[in-house]
Design goal:
It contains four helices and ten strands. The chain is elongated and about 65 Å long. With 209 residues, the chain is of the alpha+beta class. The chain folds into two domains: 108 residues, no CATH class; 80 residues, Sandwich (Immunoglobulin-like), CATH 2.60.40.
């Protein structure tokens, strides 16, 4: 893959606000958007359960405002449950969108679920670099940092057809040892972010020393 390649896979993202009250409004919008939406007829979680979880969070948020003992902890637990519900719906919407051929139709479909579509743009700079270390058979890989709370899943290959996974890291850097000298290797990574799993990065090659 060249540095000018464009990755065309659409990525569904959530529009979650920062405060709990605003989040409640947002998730209610998602609930309403999915109810009766023929494009999303088989959600992974019942909308009735989702509605109940939202109602429980709203009740807990009201109690937390009174500063009653244990109210904040209860609110946080119910907030986590609603966020987990929302994450399941995002993954579901993503799976439906991947089957849509038209980018215009995909965007409209995502909008109908009260979510957004982020499409990767043209990349003119490498996302990943590979260099030989000071020890034979050792390579240092570095990715363009995507911020906190990101997991980087690394892979290498000898032919760009069969890929071998490496240990995932939370840092945008890793090392690989025991490689065969004077051999061409290919490397790539995939990032799992708060917004979901991204496309594979560009592929870089390196003759190992």
């Amino acid at each position: 893959m060249s540095t000018s390649d464009t990755l065309m896979t659409p990525v569904v993202v959530l529009n979650c606000p920062r405060t709990t009250k605003e989040l409640i409004t947002y998730v209610r919008g998602v609930l309403v958007a999915l109810q009766g939406n023929a494009s999303f007829s088989s959600p992974p979680l019942s909308l009735t359960v989702f509605a109940a979880d939202i109602a429980a969070l709203e009740e807990a948020e009201t109690k937390a405002a009174t500063r009653a003992k244990g109210a904040a902890a209860l609110r946080d637990a119910r907030l986590a449950k609603v966020k987990d519900d929302l994450a399941q719906y995002r993954v579901y919407v993503q799976s439906v969108v991947l089957a849509i051929a038209s980018s215009i139709d995909a965007a409209a479909l995502v909008e109908s679920a009260n979510m957004s579509l982020r499409r990767p743009t043209m990349r003119n700079t490498p996302e990943i670099s590979a260099k030989n270390a000071d020890v034979s058979g050792k390579v240092v890989l570095a990715a363009k940092s995507l911020g906190p709370f990101v997991v980087y899943s690394w892979e290498y290959s000898l032919d760009q057809a069969n890929w071998t996974p490496m240990p995932a890291t939370r840092k945008a850097r890793t090392e690989l040892t025991g490689l065969t000298m004077a051999t061409m290797y290919y490397f790539r990574f995939r990032a799992d972010t708060r917004a979901g799993l991204r496309d594979y990065s560009q592929i870089v090659s390196l003759v190992v020393h």
